[in-house]
Amino acid sequence: MADRLFVYGTLLLATDTPMARWLAPRLGNGRAATISGRLAAIPARGGYFPALLPAPDHRRVIGMVFDAALSPDDWRTLDIYEGREYRRDTAWVSGPGGRRRAFCYRWVSALPPAARSIGGDFGAWLSRHRLAAFGAVRREI
């Protein structure tokens, strides 16, 4: 498998986080894609980050899949950023080019009591509630 990475939260450039800005030049072509699952939003100082969880039905999480020209050091940096609560895994993602295998970060810890179920689109949820992603640059509108 060529390295691909599915991102759905604070690694999306639209969230304007430092990690998303660090990652962007290391990624190749991106395409809209979905993955089986559901999201929970977890509050942290200054914003929220999403947890990708299994879904007992056919729910989908919206994100982007990228061709990832990442070095082993880059992958380690991402693993450290995501922390122990996430595990890098492979999954089938669906997009305009069909189904492909890609790496993604899945939540593997117990959800904190303040976690909120948000469906499958982290960016839309943030926008709808006028909230920021964890680590995002806040801009006044």
UniProtKB/TrEMBL annotation:
Q: Which residues form the Gamma-glutamylcyclotransferase AIG2-like domain?
A: 5-109
Which Pfam families is this protein grouped with? GGACT
Give coiled-coil spans as residue ranges.
Answer: none
InterPro entries linked to this entry: AIG2-like_dom (IPR009288), GGCT-like (IPR013024), GGCT-like_sf (IPR036568)
Question: Know the name of this protein?
Answer: Gamma-glutamylcyclotransferase AIG2-like domain-containing protein
Q: Which organism is it from?
A: Croceicoccus marinus
